Amino acid sequence: MAAPSSFVSAQRLWDSLQAMARFGATAAGGVNRQALSAEDTAAQAELVRWGQATGMLASRDAAGNLFLRLPGSDASASPVLSGSHLDSQPTGGKFDGAYGVLAAFEAARAIRAAGVVPRRAIDVVAWMNEEGSRFAPGMMGSAVFAGDRPLDAVLAAQDAQGVRVGEALAVQQQSLAHVPLRPLGGAVHAFVEAHIEQGPVLEREGYPVGIVSGIQGKHTFRVEVTGEAAHAGTSQRSERKDALLAATAMVQSLAAAFHDVEDITKFTIGRFEVLPNAPSVVAARVVFSIDLRHPDTARLRAMSAQVEHLCAAARGPCAVNVQRLSAADSLEFPEALRQRARAVADRLATPWRDLPSAAGHDARYLHAVTPTAMLFVPCHLGLTHNEAESATPSDLAAGTRVLADLLLELAND
């Protein structure tokens, strides 16, 4: 009997990625499909239609995660999960996240086309709000699924317009009312996430597939600086409580403290909001984000512990509140599962190399509850979170072929 990998269609996979990219398409060729938006809901509805047409069973959970099940012969056996996310950054690309979901879907179609009924069910999953661009922090759906965050806390999170996750989920559930609800969490035999690399290594070295060794740690914060609005022409400098000057002093202090000559530490201020944001008014309030990453957990924790002190020391006459949003340490995926992925790639004569992930993924949270692996495929120049994000049909298909055979192998354990 032919392996599922031989039934993977590069053209069908490519067409599905292009079709999914229509939801939230931008004029520059990218995608703006933020979590729980109308575009995200439409994309999920389309995936449900595709799955049902393939004979897969759709379901959703209370955290907004979407599942398509390829049934197995043993209904009592825990399923194998594979997927990623459909939400994007405001100026995202066509492949980040979506490739992982649609590669898993293509793998399920290939397994069905091969005429194989695995022992365990295979669930294709689209996790809710991986990106964290609209609602912070990211990876909400997978974190709730894995029991790392309470559902109530996630539902209470708000976007910049004050819309709560719970409210946005309720709107989405109305549009997907035909999709039955399933319980949160549950036993999982294994999880495999395919993804574009989001780095230049695979393309530069000519490998179509990467076997991911682990994920570097990431701690995130929300900093709110409170000053006092005042007239730009009449208020005295000595009496001002300028939230913008205080915030920029904090940013410079943090950047200096976290600078390293090896360029290993990743320190990013990705969001910066000023109120009232008027040309002739001293800033009364500033809110900014901190994204801090390092592969060494001890070093990351040490830097993270300095954030509140450094912000307080630079606040001047203003008040500051530092809220830690997430604290995900570095992790290493199980060697046994990585070796199984390598063996599949070898059987398919697909060149591969081991490499770490510098970016966070939903696999981080699944790693805590089940054996987890990740497969990378190249993306052009490593460019991602960008409308120009690009990947080739041949590389996307190569990763999917490895994924299809690995999923069947795991589902027959």
TrEMBL record:
Domain Peptidase M20 dimerisation: 215-313
KW DNA repair (keyword) present: no
Isomerase as UniProt keyword: no
Pfam families xrefs: M20_dimer, Peptidase_M20
GO MF term set: hydrolase activity
Keyword vocabulary terms for this entry: Hydrolase
InterPro entries documented for this protein: Amidase_Cbmase, Bact_exopeptidase_dim_dom, Peptidase_M20, Peptidase_M20_dimer
Annotated NCBIfam families: hydantase (TIGR01879)
PANTHER family: ALLANTOATE AMIDOHYDROLASE, ALLANTOATE DEIMINASE-RELATED
UniProt family annotation: Belongs to the peptidase M20 family.
Name listed for the protein in its UniProt record: Zn-dependent hydrolase
Organism: Pseudorhodoferax aquiterrae
Gene: amaB
